[in-house]
């Protein structure tokens, strides 16, 4: 049966939904409506322009644990389309993916344009239409489908897939709220920490492979690579913390303290033993040459200067008081955070259309039958590492397939 499927949004989820819909119903007329003059904008810039397509986690129960919002509900969706399916989908279309040490998966070309070209080629071959500069003002449900009111025209569709992305403000979802949807107020997720008064910013560019970070006074804690920037701290350890703590940190108005264990999972007893072994084996080695903790030299020198400890003394000269202070700083270093930085082009929000309004087996609306949802417009978000794209591929695939049947 041929009918019109309108896809709202020309991002990853919208493209995948359109492709899926047309694949499962070749006679359907499928059109993507994009409000801007850019298609697949996040795909283009993600992963530093390499596109972090997905994550090499191939067990559904484990995969779902990387989503602060949507963990339980996504288990149903991943049963229909998961990371295994994503890899097969792209590789069957000539896009080879590679897995990096941290399990992020990229095209072997290290170029996001490879993914864009693949999706554009698929859309073109299937005969999917694309309409740009289409600002949607309202959707009206009628007896014979939907009327989509755009700024410059009005179109009819039998089925509608909403893949319009997240919005930094609840007002961005007003048109959906008018249709009866419950909107979970959006707040930023995946942001970096600003530390305007912290001297550690002078170490911009220094990174630690595995640090443990927790927000003082909360149960929030994460581990992973940490990057010092000219505004504060970033890297996976910080981004994961911002995702899991999105609402808590918003309630704190982004003013809080963090404690950093620069040694990751190493506790005080183990750190003390490491230092004692260094004293026993290299007693005359200068502190400036201490390598046992495997920290970047600039960071270690910074900590010594902060504690007023000369880097020129030998390890055996370090008295008990300064040894305790050094260990405490390496394991419990405290910093004040005053604000966040969200990359506007790549922003991820938690919030959006409540998952209670959607059937996760089909992505069809429980409020308005014939309407489907995909991507960040939903109250779903993952931590950094390719998980948000995987949610887009999964929900887009299901929404497209369901709308075509």
Description:
- Helix 1 runs parallel beside helix 6.
- The strands form 6 sheets. A 7-stranded antiparallel beta sheet has the order 17-16-13-14-15-12-18. Strands 6-2-1-10-22 form a 5-stranded parallel beta sheet, covered by helices on one side. The protein has a 3-stranded antiparallel beta sheet with strand order 3-5-4.
- It contains 13 helices and 22 strands.
- 33% of the residues lie in helices and 25% in strands.
- It is of the alpha+beta class.
- The mean pLDDT is 96.
- The N and C termini lie close together (9 Å).
- The protein has 2 domains: 4-187 and 345-404, FAD/NAD(P)-binding domain; 191-341, no CATH class.
- It has helices at 12-24, 41-49, 60-63, 71-78, 83-91, 112-126, 174-177, 236-244, 246-251, 268-281, 297-307, 320-331, 387-404, and strands at residues 4-8, 29-33, 54-55, 97-99, 104-107, 129-131, 136-142, 145-150, 154-157, 159-162, 183-189, 192-194, 207-215, 221-228, 232-234, 255-261, 333-338, 340-341, 348-353, 358-359, 364-365, 371-373.
CATH names the topology of the largest domain as: FAD/NAD(P)-binding domain
Largest pleated sheet? 7 strands, antiparallel
**Number of DSSP helices?**
13
What is the annotated CATH architecture of the largest domain? 3-Layer(bba) Sandwich
* Counted beta strands: 22
Mean pLDDT: 96
Q: Helix share of residues?
A: 25-40%
CA(first)-CA(last) distance: 9 Å
Strand content: 15-25%
